[in-house]
């Protein structure tokens, strides 16, 4: 097994996963939780023994993935984080996909209480995300097609 993607991603992979499935990766038992909203294919992986969750770009430290391109949907992202991440025990450690700013991990408690975006109401969150006006990423037109083919053809 070289690459794993959500069955809802539309990309090419050696293995596809869906919500609730548990996969074994080098002895780690990873529970798949579908967390769409940044993209349709975003999943988070929970390792209960280590009390850890890997959230990719769905939830970042005091931020979240953008929702203004690809299949982004801020209402869906809000529900994903609140229903699939914030329902985990509050001491679970969160490892995110990027934007570390020197901080490598956070926790369910911290993001539930301190994330300035996700502590808003859903309506406020949707409005906030709509008004972000972020720059279009320089490499996105190359990166997305490459990611859909397991990333092998991508080079900057
Ligand atoms: Fe992303």
List the helices and strands and how they pair.
Elements: E1 4-6, E2 15-17, E3 22-25, E4 28-34, E5 43-47, E6 52-56, E7 59-60, E8 63-64, H1 74-85, E9 93-96, E10 106-107, H2 108-114, H3 122-130, H4 140-147
Parallel strand pairs: 1-2, 6-9
Antiparallel strand pairs: 3-4, 4-5, 5-6, 7-8, 9-10
Helix pairs in contact: 1-3
This protein binds fe (ii) ion.
InterPro entries: Metallo-B-lactamas (IPR001279), Mito_Persulfide_Diox (IPR051682), RibonucZ/Hydroxyglut_hydro (IPR036866)
Domain Metallo-beta-lactamase: 17-98
Organism: Caenorhabditis tropicalis
Care to give the gist of this entry?
InterPro entries: Metallo-B-lactamas (IPR001279), Mito_Persulfide_Diox (IPR051682), RibonucZ/Hydroxyglut_hydro (IPR036866). With 156 residues, the chain is of the alpha+beta class.
Structure, explained:
One of its GO terms (cellular component) is mitochondrion. One of its GO terms (molecular function) is sulfur dioxygenase activity. InterPro entries: Metallo-B-lactamas, Mito_Persulfide_Diox, RibonucZ/Hydroxyglut_hydro. α1 (74-85) packs across α3 (122-130). This protein has helices spanning 74-85, 108-114, 122-130, 140-147; strands spanning 4-6, 15-17, 22-25, 28-34, 43-47, 52-56, 59-60, 63-64, 93-96, 106-107. 23% of the residues lie in helices and 24% in strands. By secondary structure, the protein is of the alpha+beta class. It has a six-stranded mixed β-sheet with strand order 3-4-5-6-9-10. A two-stranded parallel sheet has the order 1-2. The protein has a single domain (4-147), classed as 4-Layer Sandwich (Metallo-beta-lactamase, Chain A). The protein is built from four helices and ten strands; from the N terminus they run ββββββββαββααα. The model has no long low-confidence stretch (mean pLDDT 93). The radius of gyration is 15 Å and the shape is globular. Residues 38, 57, 65 line the site of fe (ii) ion (FE2).
